[in-house]
């Protein structure tokens, strides 16, 4: 059972464009929704995260939009740069507790100059 | 550097071999995790240790045996693996009280022949 579904699987964006990747979750009890960024040869690193008390969170060029009723959240990368080319994983889970955080399959984003 | 170091970076082993993966964290965290990353699949949580005690074992085959001698070190002992076990094995650490911000190592790329 896949608790978190990401789309699209891969994305090619022109430099300066907007990259949008989406994530759908199933468990309505979850209250923590992070996005992790992974470069080749490296482990995933936390990029940005949101909790359901807000519908949007922005950090620099990265924004999470959260839709609780639709059980969806998305990552927007504004002014995409070649250095943003990476695999992006969304995850969902409980904020408190050191147990499972359900990850998606990952979206590969390629930003072309 | 994330503060989580994994060795070796690459490992090739036969199905009858016994090997161990090592993870070390220098962040003062009290929870450590093993994840399995396979192509086009979600990150799969294998084991969770909190304060050196195993708190989660996600129905992982017994050919994988974790060990956490202290809060800074985590091992994954491997024996009689199968070719389908070939994957990137990621170690992560966290505060343990919350799922906020897991720190991942760069992983061990394992190939089972």
Question: Would you summarize the structure shown here?
Answer:
The complex is a heterodimer of chains A (113) and B (113). By secondary structure, chain A is mainly beta. Chain A is built from no helices and eleven strands.
Entry keywords:
heterodimer, A: 113 residues, mainly beta, six-stranded mixed sheet, five-stranded antiparallel sheet, 11 strands, 54% strand, globular, B: 113 residues, seven-stranded mixed sheet, four-stranded antiparallel sheet, 0% helix
If helices are DSSP runs of H or I spanning 4 or more residues, what is the number of helices of chain B? 0
Largest sheet of chain B: 7 strands, mixed
Count every helix of chain A, treating DSSP H or I runs of 4 or more residues as helices.
Answer: 0
Radius of gyration of chain B, whole Å: 13 Å
Query: Roughly what percent helix of chain A?
Result: under 10%
Structural class of chain B: mainly beta
Low-confidence stretches of chain B: none
| Arithmetic mean of pLDDT of chain A | 93
Sheet with most strands of chain A: 6 strands, mixed
Structure report:
- The complex is a heterodimer of chains A (113) and B (113).
- Chain A has strands at residues 4-7, 10-14, 19-25, 33-38, 45-50, 56-59, 62-67, 72-77, 86-93, 101-103, 107-112.
- Chain A is an all-beta fold.
- In chain A, strands 2, 4, 5, 9, 10 and 11 form a six-stranded mixed sheet that branches. A five-stranded antiparallel sheet of chain A has the order 1-3-8-7-6, with no helix packed on it.
- In chain A, a hairpin with a 7-residue loop joins strand 9 (86-93) and strand 10 (101-103).
- Chain A is globular and about 40 Å long.
- The relative contact order of chain A is 0.33.
- With 113 residues, chain B is mainly beta.
- In chain B, strands 2, 4, 5, 6, 9, 10 and 11 form a seven-stranded mixed sheet that branches. Chain B has a four-stranded antiparallel sheet with strand order 1-3-8-7, with no helix packed on it.
- The model of chain B has no long low-confidence stretch (mean pLDDT 91).
- The chains are: A mainly beta (113), B mainly beta (113).
